[in-house]
Amino acid sequence: MNPFLKNDINIFKNLSESEFIELKSVFSYRKYLKKEFIIKEDAAVENIYFISSGLVKLSYFDNDTNEFILSFAFENWWETDFSAFYNQTKAALTLQCLEDTEVYGLNFDDYFLILDKYRLSNYFLDKSIRGHIASQKRILSLLTLKPKERYEQFLQLYPSINQRIPKSVLALYLGVSRETLSRLYRKSKK
Amino acid sequence: MNPFLKNDINIFKNLSESEFIELKSVFSYRKYLKKEFIIKEDAAVENIYFISSGLVKLSYFDNDTNEFILSFAFENWWETDFSAFYNQTKAALTLQCLEDTEVYGLNFDDYFLILDKYRLSNYFLDKSIRGHIASQKRILSLLTLKPKERYEQFLQLYPSINQRIPKSVLALYLGVSRETLSRLYRKSKK
DNA sequence: ATTAGGGTGTGACCGAAATCACTTTTATTT
DNA sequence: AAATAAAAGTGATTTCGGTCACACCCTAAT
Prior knowledge:
Two copies of one chain form a homodimer. The first copy, chain A, is α+β, with helices and mostly antiparallel strands. The first copy, chain A, has a domain at about 5-120: Jelly Rolls (Sandwich), CATH 2.60.120. Chain A has nine helices and eight strands. The model of chain A has no long low-confidence stretch (mean pLDDT about 90). Chain A has helices spanning about 5-10, 15-25, 80-85, 110-115, 120-145, 145-155, 160-165, 165-175, 180-190, and strands at about 30, 35-40, 45-55, 55-60, 65-75, 80, 95, 100-105. In chain A, strands 1-8-3-6 form a four-stranded antiparallel beta sheet. A four-stranded antiparallel beta sheet of chain A has the order 2-7-4-5. The interface of A and B includes residues 60, 66, 121, 124 and 139 of A. The structure holds a DNA duplex.
């Protein structure tokens, strides 16, 4: 198993080497290529995914035409369509790779199994609360900031992924048109 | 202790009567009047609050002038400035009563204490994930819907609190001006 | 019954961003 | 290297929602 996942979990719970080998067996490793879908709309959402390398986008399509991006996820993030996974319903969101990406999947039953067996509830609770806090920041950003300010906030918050995604994709995340973003970009440079 | 909290927790973990009496002692009950602040900007955030009755708004003020509402919270919801509580920093948000409100406060140390002592991690994990899912829905609503559609979605989602708040306050939540909301309102009636 | 204040409705005007249309630049593929 | 596709820049036009200004409630207090 990728060392990242081990290090990440160990922040909260020091498992012995043997416990870790045991735990590792419940995860399913898979590699996806750029543009491949990890979760497709209307498909069942079997897993929650730990991204060990690469970059993905979680998005929603209205009327299967216009795309909107809920979040990017990269190294050491857990991601899935939480609503669909947690309620075991069909995916309303899609999860697609912006780069070649390696993931460790954890299915519904195993998720609840390991919560108790390895006392990982507090680990996931921490992840979830931080995710919740990040979502609230995003809501405030959408409510309070103008496109230009949102763009600048994004640059500050995620300087690394800004380099890794096309501007047209970033526009889908910021909630502005491609053209408007392009014009802002010029202005904030000088 | 208010029966609501007990019923809510019991969904996840059946505590004995004596355990419950023990647990109850860590909560601090308090009653607030309409317009009172439970959390004030820049103050320390001691507690996470379980709302047992009433209605509150969680909001952000930019430059201490313009208000934006992150969420409403009412009976059976847990609410606080999570970022400030969890990181033990000063409040960036305010929590203010829209009605007379009764809360049960739980402080930082006790929170982590009872997570383990009463095995409540899974209970709070569930709450947190559902909160996270709700936040994501809100983000999508802001990204994909026009003001009129957001208003209609709100009516559908929270028909009860729509009756309990002024339209001008709802506008702060929907991210539109008071005037625009007023005009939409007329249009969607006919 | 008069006043004051919170909440709401509505017209006029303005501006930021969407949309449309097209060009230019940069990557990928063969 | 040529061809094709993807991404980005830019002008012209339109539109939705914000802002300003003021009128009209309705309830509670004097």
